[in-house]
Amino acid sequence: MTSELPVLPQPLVEEAVRRALLEDLGRAGDITSAATIPPTATAEARIAARAGGVLAGLALASAAFAQLDQTIAFQPLLPDASRIEPGAPIARISGPARSLLSAERVALNFLGHLSGIATLTRRYVDAVAHTQARITCTRKTTPGLRAFEKYAVRCGGGSNHRYGLDDAVLIKDNHIAIAGGVAPAIARARDFVGHLVKIEVEVDTLEQLGEALAAGVDAILLDNMTPSTLREAVTMANGKAILEASGGITEETVAAIAETGVDYISCGALTHSAPWLDLGLDIAV
Length: 285
Hints:
four-stranded antiparallel sheet; 43% helix; alpha/beta; TIM Barrel; 2 domains
């Protein structure tokens, strides 16, 4: 983990969990548990890892149980961002059996998805640990889950790119095409935004990089450049702007890209292609 984790706002957590529970419970609730479990039955269970990885999403798992029944006790055994081995116990849960089983899938869905993102991010972070480069995510996220997926990236040791279209300027190739070039696009952006808003511009060539450096920006995204071209870009920039490499980054290529001297490497796969981490809930018998 590169820094302290951000705090997930509780209303954001509660609303996401509420929507997930409504989706799962439908119009009639958990008819299987209602049909098979006596209303007074209680149970104890534990959530454990079935594969190794990095943990993320405990707040959402806890909220899933609490929203169905506030008498359910949810005790995390590890904090988010923990590295976990197969079989590692993650949480203990106890309380009314029907509610516990009804919340199980929503809790595990959030935990498995976010822990998968944290796990994949950690693999990328470990691959570039011998360099100065930092791994960052993109806006290629699941609609409605962006804040949580970006949180999971942080759990894996990565950093966050902008959260949306409103918190930073990123001038991309289509903006440049319509604005009439790199320099005009940067000039218009600088005139429009306040002094606290960062401006980044995407470039595809070293010629465009030169234009961006001459115009002056906070950061430059180097899109789909080879390692040799990235090295040239680093030399050209000479510290005048933060450099971010992006485009088709994989676990196999990320180390070579980091070794070029870029500051950041952004990768959409962290959030849109991370496999879930296999976690399970087992009833104590």
